Amino acid sequence: MASKVLMPNIPSKNHVAYSGSMVPRSHSSGHLCLPKKRAGTTTSRSQSHASSFTTPAMSTGIAKTSSSTGNSSLAHMWREVQGCNNWDGLVEPLHPFLRQEIIRYGEFVTACYEAFDLNPKSKRYLTCKYGKKNLFREVGMGNSDYEVTKYIYATPDVNIPIQNEPSCGRWIGYVAVSSDDAVSRLGRRDIVITFRGTVTNPEWISNLMSSLTPARLDPNNPRPEVKVESGFLSLYTSNESDNKFGLGSCREQLLAEVSRLLNRYKGEELSISLAGHSMGSSLALLLAYDISELGLNRLDPKLDVPVTVFSFGGPRVGNSSFKERCEELGVKVLRIANVNDPITKLPGVLLNENLRVFGGRYEFPWSCSCYEHVGVEIALDFFNMQNPSCVHDLGSYISLLKCLKRDQVQKDEENLFNRARESILSRAQNINMEPLKNAASNVVNLVQSQRTELLMDATILSLMNSFALYILL
């Protein structure tokens, strides 16, 4: 089974209001809770679970790291953040650098939705609204320090995202590479490939054919036991065969561009980061497997370029052999999934990793037909009665990840005040000057009660603590 991630318990909050572009003001009650790791687990990866209620929002901004110290640290631990150790020690609690990178890649996927033209009267209908040089600026990501190098089109056998349209290439995502300025901040040259999902959930679900078929992506070793969902594979490999001047398949476009970029930046520290939402995460995983199976990321016998997938609300893609082969090839997958999101349960609602083995020892005869998730999972829990569709909304995923940081900061602040009060009162126990003792305690209580208006931080708290101790001593 794929691993799951746990996060620390946080006190519940009612009528939470988030300001700015993160999420709109909401009256939904919610909390973040993460149970302790269950005893007797057989997986080596940490398991966790986060819960919260939030409202949907599509965040389009992307922020750089604010301090040179943080940038330097990220540059030194980028391999761990990309999953070289399966994110061991980074997900419980969620490391700030990992959180930052998850949000950053999620916003790269957001750009796909923001830039996709769904206006039938537009000349760019079913393609990107903007040119490659202007994409990030137009969607509010002008400071991303990445350059788009290629747009990717897919030719579906089923109509996505618009029904009753002829089969043709639709813009599905893009390839981008980090700039020279970003290299020092990130610690390597990063090649990013992002995929959007379908526009609405019903259209997405209609595309699930729920039948496994051999991937056979490596002509030298077809591996018939490695099977993937036929609809995803068709979208990945189909081309405009009826038109000799038509587009090549999504696969052909991607492999050619990845090979070109790897050759161009050969000799540098490199990473290949793939990100997708919904069906887009399935394409990201297929591409990651394809790159690794063909050995495109193997620049020399001793050097493999890391291949990492950041999946948001993604479904299962293949069977157990596909999962095992991805792990053998070193493909790293971090799945961010809402437990209330039905897409993450598909395909294989019945035949999945939970019904493959009996008693932890004996495989059922149908095990080869069971779908399995790949990688490490960060399980979120959010739902809004007023807008149930938020359970699959990418903006809701990103907003909750941002809120986790906000709630953790508030929890840390409360712990600081509690430690300060305990320190002062413990030192005051041996003092008989009761009035001064009460005054010092009141100072801390007053500061705590007014911390929002005073914008208290750890430095001011330390000064107030010292002042109170001075009175007592």
From TrEMBL:
<dbReference type="GO" id="GO:0008970">
    <property type="term" value="F:phospholipase A1 activity"/>
</dbReference>
<keyword id="KW-0809">Transit peptide</keyword>
<dbReference type="GO" id="GO:0016042">
    <property type="term" value="P:lipid catabolic process"/>
</dbReference>
<keyword id="KW-0378">Hydrolase</keyword>
<dbReference type="Pfam" id="PF01764">
    <property type="entry name" value="Lipase_3"/>
</dbReference>
<feature type="region of interest" description="Disordered">
    <location>
        <begin position="29"/>
        <end position="66"/>
    </location>
</feature>
<protein>
    <submittedName>
        <fullName>Galactolipase DONGLE, chloroplastic-like</fullName>
    </submittedName>
</protein>
<dbReference type="GO" id="GO:0009507">
    <property type="term" value="C:chloroplast"/>
</dbReference>
<keyword id="KW-0934">Plastid</keyword>
<keyword id="KW-0150">Chloroplast</keyword>
<dbReference type="GO" id="GO:0047714">
    <property type="term" value="F:galactolipase activity"/>
</dbReference>
<dbReference type="GO" id="GO:0009695">
    <property type="term" value="P:jasmonic acid biosynthetic process"/>
</dbReference>
<comment type="similarity">
    <text>Belongs to the AB hydrolase superfamily. Lipase family.</text>
</comment>
<feature type="compositionally biased region" description="Polar residues">
    <location>
        <begin position="40"/>
        <end position="66"/>
    </location>
</feature>
<feature type="domain" description="Fungal lipase-type">
    <location>
        <begin position="192"/>
        <end position="349"/>
    </location>
</feature>
<keyword id="KW-0443">Lipid metabolism</keyword>
<keyword id="KW-0442">Lipid degradation</keyword>
<dbReference type="InterPro" id="IPR002921">
    <property type="entry name" value="Fungal_lipase-type"/>
</dbReference>
<dbReference type="InterPro" id="IPR029058">
    <property type="entry name" value="AB_hydrolase_fold"/>
</dbReference>
